[in-house]
Structure formats: C-alpha cells, structure tokens
Specification:
With 231 residues, the protein is α/β, with parallel strands linked by helices. It has a single domain, classed as Phosphatidylinositol (PI) phosphodiesterase (TIM Barrel, Alpha-Beta Barrel). It has nine helices and nine strands. Strands 1-2-4-5-6-7-8-9 form an eight-stranded parallel β-barrel. Strand 8, helix 9 and strand 9 form a beta-alpha-beta unit. Helix 1 packs parallel to helix 4. The radius of gyration is 17 Å and the shape is globular. The chain starts with a strand and ends in a 7-residue tail after the last strand.
Length: 231
C-alpha cells in the first residue's frame, strides 16, 4: 500500500506550501502529491485552484499573475498564522527529493488552460535533475494533457485521474495507474485494473480503518491529508 502525502501534510499546514511539504517529510512521508499551474511568466506554481479566491481571498487567476506577483498574496493560514505563499515547483522539489519514492504531479490543465505546460514541466524537471523522472508520476483530469505527455516521452509514468471509470483510456495511454475518488471505487474496478496491469490509487482517505478496508477491496494506494497516521 502506497501512502501519498496529499498536497503535503495538509491536515496540519496550508496545503501545497513549502511548510506543508517540509512537515510531511519530517513526519516520514516518502510519497507526495501536488498540483501545478502556469503563471503569466511561464513558471510552474504549486496550487490546487486556478484562482486565489478561496486560498488568499483575492479573485485573481494564476495564469494572469507572475511568480513574483504571487508573493504579494499571503495564503489564509488557520493553522499557525505564519505567512505562507504559493510556491514554485522548483522550490518544492528539494524539500521532497530526500528519500523520495514517488511524486505525483497533477497538471491542472482542463481544456488546455495552459498551452505548453507539459513541455514546461518536462523541461523544469530536466533542469532540476534528469534522474528524478524515474520517481515522477504525472496525472491530470484532462485526457489530452496526458496524451501530450505521452508524446513527449514514451517512458513517462502516467496515472489516469478520472471521474468516470474507463480502463480502456488508461490502457490506451500505457498508464501505470488509475486514480479515483474513493467514493466511486469498487472491488470490481480494482480487479479490472489489475487484470490490465494497472494500480489503483484513491483520494482522499484520512481514516486508517477505511484505508484498510479499501486495501482489502484491492486498492494499491491512497492520497491522505493525514500522512502521520500512515507512516
């Protein structure tokens, strides 16, 4: 069973921040999940929503801001009051790389919101450390984004993130995993995936008892906000 620190230690820190990933590692995480967007000046920003409305209280889209602009909008922090901001991927990578087993990078690219983000991400990882690709799992709800990633490299590790289970899509991508909301998951889905050489990772699971039940039903891993309960 694989346990991904979902947006870092997001039950204890503001999600997708340097503080959150730093704490996740301190708690023992070796697998992580994060989300990326593209800023106006072509930098990869780690943030879940396309806008800062819910996280910083300002109705601004990341695609309309530069990386420097993001440092002007502290994120709402109900945990400890520290000032935290939307980080860049290149700031997060050094925090999670020590002891890293797997990093799931989700591209928030619905309807190709960020043309060229696949190449930007590939180039960013190449500049950082080409060896890290062996530990990167790319996922997206946008199927065409994953198709473009596959065209970039036939060996890219891909996870199909989907709201409607269709194993043929994952097989067509030569994916290694299918990512599902745990409320939609069934043991039959797990069996179909395993028959096709696919792993099944479920989000978001914060209860060890529930996680054990899902594992018995065939889940291979979970995304959790409470990484300290599982490592």
């Amino acid at each position: 069973m694989i346990y991904f620190a979902h947006r870092g230690a997001s039950a204890r820190c503001v999600q997708n921040t340097l503080e959150s990933f730093r704490l996740a590692r301190q708690l023992g995480a070796t697998c992580y999940e994060l989300d990326v967007h593209l800023t106006r000046d072509g930098q990869l920003a780690v943030h879940h929503d396309e806008s800062l409305l819910d996280t910083a209280g300002v109705d601004l889209a990341i695609k309309d801001l530069t990386a420097a602009d993001l440092q002007s909008y502290p994120l709402i922090n109900r945990f400890n009051g520290n000032k935290v901001f939307v980080p860049q991927l290149k700031e997060v990578l050094p925090l999670v790389e020590p002891g890293l087993q797997l990093l799931n990078i989700e591209l928030k690219n619905d309807e190709n919101r960020y043309p060229g983000i696949e190449r930007k991400l590939w180039d960013e990882l190449s500049r950082y450390n080409p060896q890290i690709f062996a530990k990167i799992l790319f996922s997206s709800f946008d199927y065409d984004t994953l198709v473009r990633l596959r065209k970039l490299n036939s060996n890219a590790r891909i996870g199909l993130l989907t709201r409607s289970f269709d194993v043929s899509q994952a097989v067509g991508l030569a994916a290694e995993s299918v990512h599902l909301n745990q409320t939609r998951f069934t043991s039959e889905m797990a069996a179909i995936c395993h028959q096709n050489g696919l792993k099944v990772y479920l989000y978001t699971v914060n209860d060890p008892v529930q996680a054990a039940r899902l594992q018995q039903q065939g889940a291979d891993g979970i995304f959790t906000d409470c990484i300290d309960l599982f490592v």
